[in-house]
Amino acid sequence: MAASYPPAALSRLHPGGAGGCPGGPVGYARRQEVRTMTDAFTVLKADHTEVEALLTRLTGGAGPASAASPDPARDAETLVMAESRHEAAEEMYFWPTVRERVADGDALANEAKAQEAEGKRVLDELRTCAPGDGRFEELVATFAAAGRAHIDFEETQVWPKLRAVLTPADADKLGDELTRAKAAGPTRPHPDAPDSPGALKTTGVAAAAMDKVRDAVSGRGRH
Ligand SMILES: [Fe+2]
Ligand SMILES: [Fe+2]
User: What does pTM read for this prediction?
Assistant: First the structure.
């Protein structure tokens, strides 16, 4: 949910006060700044919704794998790219915040990162498979079960505890960090790469850049 601020808070953000033309560049910049701030839970929820929709298409709901998707290869590719960006952003900014701010944050983050590591291995194999080869459907089904359980864990076990300790400004700042990290993030899972926040901000950046070069050459994700 986009943050909304009372006038007093806005005047603190913009010490220039009420001066300037509300319809001019300064007023416009103020409205843009407020409107584009999206809290962390909204950013992450949008990603989860996208992943859940892809999984529903790929698994055909309760039906056979890939039955509902007119283009399961493309949906799987989108899933791998979206998940890679999402989990890398969480590893860089979300889980460190959970560890720092939530009382049992270390235990929660450790459990979640074990789930994410397993998910990466499945997706890394999935991206080498093709619909109809048997393994593709098996991996989609495996990831669908694990991915849904992981999303449920984050949303029901972790988010309420983090929400309780973050101020709206904290949640907005984290949302901004996650958004930036996703934009610069990897498009492949890299299951064997170090996943510490520090490593992701150094070697992970290089891996993400290489992913984008390979995507540009192959046309991957261009749809
Ligand atoms: Fe996650
Ligand atoms: Fe997540």
Answer: 0.75
